[in-house]
Amino acid sequence: YDQYWSFEFREDCTNECLQSYIQKLELDVIRAQTILDVYKSLKVPEGGTIPKFNFGDVMFYYQEKDDAISNKNIQDLFNINLSNLNFP
Hints:
- The chain has 88 residues and is mainly α.
- The chain has one domain (14-84).
- It is built from 3 helices and no strands.
- The radius of gyration is 18 Å and the shape is elongated.
């Protein structure tokens, strides 16, 4: 939380400056909600353990960077379509 608590506006900050900061915070919320949605959709077998995965593979799948994905079955680990995520 330090990035939020320690933030200070410049002395010459105007409403435009404030709106820019608000927009940044709104993007942070969207990004965090998307990450939360990914984790909530993780397929966990009953009585089983969470499958091992690298979140970087989720991002590579979303960005269609197939050559960079280490687990080619990454989509199979989730109940949502990773291609339809909403990362700002």
